[in-house]
Amino acid sequence: MAPGIIQLHSFSWTRRLTRYVKAGQYEKMMELFQQMQQAGMSPNGFTFLPVLNACTSLRAIEEGRCVHEEIIQSGYESDVVVGLIDMYAKCGSMEDAHRVFNRMPTQNVISWTSMIQGYVRCGEGKRVLELFWQMQQEGVEPNCVTFIGVLNACASVAALDKGRHVHQQIIQTDKALELFQQMQRERVKPNPVTFVGIVNACSSMLALDMGRHLHEQIIKCGHESNIFVANSLIDMYAKCGSIEDAEKEFNNMPTHDLVSWNAMIIGQGSCGHGLKALELLPQMQQEGMEPNPITFVGLLNACASVATLEKGRHIHEQIIQFGCEDNLFVANSLIDMYAKCGNIEDAQRVFNRMPMHNVVSWTVMLQGYAMHGHGKQALEHFELICKESVDIDHVTFVCVLSACSYAGLVDEGIHQFDSMGLIYSISASAEHYVCMVDLLGRAGHMQEAEDLIKTMPFEPHVAVWKALLGACRIYCDVLMGGQIAKQVLEVDPGNAAGYALLSNINDAAGKWDLSANV
């Protein structure tokens, strides 16, 4: 028989085998396979795949082993290796599956996932987690199906910490939404826990449209009344900037718990509605709900955002009443609130009373000094930070350089800027350069500020030019101001602030010709 005719016949047989598999008629398919062999037809890789699927569905491991021998003799094992792993795994023989897996020249995400799913079915959760770790060590990126298997394994062995780590991985790779879509394709019915995880992923990615789509599905599945789901929806809407939707969800809830109230308080504050956040506290207490440290952090942040010192002091009284003043997060928020409300003395008192400090405590206090122009106190505070061996980062140096700028400490600022890289190995960012340009410009060192901009290791940001332009306005340097204005408007042609600054310079100098210089 001519080779072309053999191929044609093989193709016809494969199509017939596949049709039986799709129809779930596995016994008939196996009978047809035997007839094909009796007719002298040699199966190829495509032919063996539906046969392996039939063995898998029938859990016919002995027949599967016979087919495997034929596959090896025919030289097609590398073509159907994933089908073999899947067949052995689903038939409960992970030893055989592992032997096939180990013979593979390279393993891809599909083969790793087949092994993981197999161990999940066999109830070997610990083995799943070992494989997952090995897979990542090999540089193979997990897909949605992999994550479903690993999460099931975490649940089976009650590995909560590992489950949280995997959840974080899912969020970091934006795989959470794909995972949900994969579950839908596999017709896995989502439960409230599933929805909470996916809604939280939308929060992390600020995916408002997807969050709204999920909300619709939650309603269809009848889970909106679940308090955990409802709370996650409030948090998602608030973080995505849709406080109106968060309010609707909150108002539709039959009952609220402390998490519901905290989500609304924090949400209102983060969306710029500080006063609304503060109004929620008496409502919450009328429902018999007592605030916790998270509540107080949200309320203090709201006070700081609207600079309402009186309300901040009232919240402080309640913090003392409920015994939360020693809570590290609450104390840090108190420092921040007092500093932003203009009372650096009370901020210092809270800091001094704290039984312990973390890097946030030190940095918030430093920011307070810088914000109010207390340069020398800020530098003394920075020395204490160094003595306490607190981890110093780029934010710390932004505060230090800002303090030097406000206090006009040029030499000290230059020293700190140099020490940032030389001593602390922190690369200067655009924020640090803005601080230095502002420092030099405020002190009247205009040319040095411009020279510094030219030495930046990256393209100057508009904020850097604006810092120098601001100094030009202070010193009425019309010539340099005109040159810098061109730079600002070249980088950002629609920059309204750039035009406003030009107008200010024009007013100060009395001779600014906007049309001639821009």
From TrEMBL:
InterPro entries referenced in this protein's UniProt entry, alphabetically: PPR_At4g14850-like_plant, PPR_rpt, TPR-like_helical_dom_sf
Gene3D superfamilies named in the record: Tetratricopeptide repeat domain
PPR repeats: 9-43, 108-142, 257-291, 327-361
Keywords: Repeat
Domain of life assignment: Eukaryota
PANTHER family tied to this protein: PENTACOTRIPEPTIDE-REPEAT REGION OF PRORP DOMAIN-CONTAINING PROTEIN, PENTATRICOPEPTIDE REPEAT-CONTAINING PROTEIN
Name used for this protein in its record: Pentatricopeptide repeat-containing protein
Source organism of this protein record: Sphagnum jensenii
Native organism taxonomy: Eukaryota, Viridiplantae, Streptophyta, Embryophyta, Bryophyta
